[in-house]
Design goal:
Length: 75
């Protein structure tokens, strides 16, 4: 049996897998949100994207992930 995580709308190049624009955001939209409505300040999808980007940038601890956005900005 042949297994692949590449969908029909994707491809491969010498640099890696090619994804459709906004595919990460669209995938995160399908994850259910366990938070209660009271106290929600940020979109679940935006939080997941920021956490994902911080993680692939090497930020592993919650405090590092929380501070990551501020460290990526330049003066």
């Amino acid at each position: 049996m042949e297994y692949s995580t590449i969908e029909r709308c994707q491809g491969e190049s010498e640099n890696g897998i090619i994804y459709k624009m906004r595919s990460l955001y669209n995938r995160f939209e399908h994850i259910s949100d366990p938070r209660k409505s009271q106290g929600k300040r940020y979109s679940r999808v935006n939080l997941l994207v920021l956490i994902f980007l911080a993680k692939i940038s090497g930020q592993d601890k919650p405090v590092e992930i929380a501070d990551w956005q501020g460290t990526t900005q330049t003066n």
